[in-house]
Prior knowledge:
Elements: E1 5-11, H1 15-29, E2 33-35, E3 44-49, H2 54-73, E4 78-82, H3 83-89, H4 91-96, E5 102-104, H5 112-120, E6 125-127, H6 135-138, E7 150-154, E8 156-157, H7 168-171, E9 176-177, H8 180-192, E10 197-201, H9 214-223, E11 230-234, H10 243-251, E12 258-260, H11 268-273, H12 280-293, E13 298-305, H13 312-325, E14 329-334, H14 351-374, E15 380-388, E16 394-399, E17 404-408, E18 417-425, E19 430-434
Parallel strand pairs: 1-2, 1-3, 3-4, 4-5, 5-6, 7-10, 10-11, 12-13, 13-14, 17-19
Antiparallel strand pairs: 8-9, 15-16, 15-18, 16-17, 18-19
The chain binds S-adenosyl-L-homocysteine (SAH), iron/sulfur cluster (SF4) and FE3-S4 cluster.
Amino acid sequence: xxxxxxxxxxxxxxxxxxxxxxxxxxxxxxxxxxxxxxxxxxxxxxxxxxxxxxxxxxxxxxxxxxxxxxxxxxxxxxxxxxxxxxxxxxxxxxxxxxxxxxxxxxxxxxxxxxxxxxxxxxxxxxxxxxxxxxxxxxxxxxxxxxxxxxxxxxxxxxxxxxxxxxxxxxxxxxxxxxxxxxxxxxxxxxxxxxxxxxxxxxxxxxxxxxxxxxxxxxxxxxxxxxxxxxxxxxxxxxxxxxxxxxxxxxxxxxxxxxxxxxxxxxxxxxxxxxxxxxxxxxxxxxxxxxxxxxxxxxxxxxxxxxxxxxxxxxxxxxxxxxxxxxxxxxxxxxxxxxxxxxxxxxxxxxxxxxxxxxxxxxxxxxxxxxxxxxxxxxxxxxxxxxxxxxxxxxxxxxxxxxxxxxxxxxxxxxxxxxxxxxxxxxxxxxxxxxxxxx
Length: 438
Ligand code: SAH
Ligand code: SF4
Ligand code: F3S
């Protein structure tokens, strides 16, 4: 008798894709698929793709090209494309890539088992609907016997903001919030299976409206779960940071002092052209209110340089905003024109100018990151240990401020929250020593 069918999923892009990949593996698990670690071993390979920048989308086609020899060697191998490229390009993928058997958009994952059956019978299958039903209501209860110390939980999907550069409203559809009771029961199940930290996910997570009181209320309800030690959430939009959520940062101990609040640019002219619907001054005022509630909060952001029409003085305004805020770390990207978005119609900034600005911006952000990490040296912080470190006898975890921390210690500490004195700042992590319990 043939053994179970083997599934390999590769995730690109954001954490919501990581979460979706887990849910897809679980849905196919109910159909007898077991997950394996490489495409070479698999009977089905799913690429869970990202469309946010041109490079991300191109990577998918080059990875598909690399799967061709596997399919030649094993004609029974089924290849699927899921995620945001699947949504954006749909039929085009089937046309361009004859080796692809299945294309499934982000809102249709609950239909994957039926599609896998059709594909096993030799058909090619495509589903890029935005179905009226919610995929989460139709995906199996999360069956994993155990989960790691940190888990993702999607609470909100989609986006109605239509920033001029962004594909997400087209690939993920309109904003939808999952109901509070579903989220709380999934969180309880994750904690029973070993999760100690939960990161709530959404393309606009703080626009969550699946219950009274918004995300601030949800955070307070989650904090009541025994055994759950830490709560984080990402990604937030500045215009959805309401007073209830800001207050939670000051009052809920389990809510970590860390906030990713993308601003994209510090120039009002560019913010307007991006349709971000706030000014630099409004963002700085918001940061002030958040810091009043939680003075030590570590802030991070995303930046786009070289948005169409960006002048040197617009760019300088971005550098000024970064100086004014002082970020713990940040992601920065060169603007990438995306088909179908309003900004793609505009004249781009010359590539060498954009490159040079990105370089200056990243230099400033690295200086801030280094200074922030160095400010941790000598402090005693909570660290939730997640896994063995790279060196023997070492374990690795995250501090309250989300820095990776390496410590000499027993692997048995995995999944526990310990006090650690930070002794050194390295380029992308901290080193520390366990503080003996009093
Ligand atoms: N919902 C989040 C962003 C999700 S996309 C928010 O509103 O902040 C993640 C990041 O990718 C964005 O914050 C932006 O900095 C970047 N990004 C999105 N579209 C881009 C594009 N066309 N070119 C370059 N960077 C882009
Ligand atoms: Fe994209 Fe803007 Fe929505 Fe974020 S808020 S996902 S950048 S459209
Ligand atoms: Fe990419 Fe889609 Fe996430 S475009 S960033 S995978 S929502």
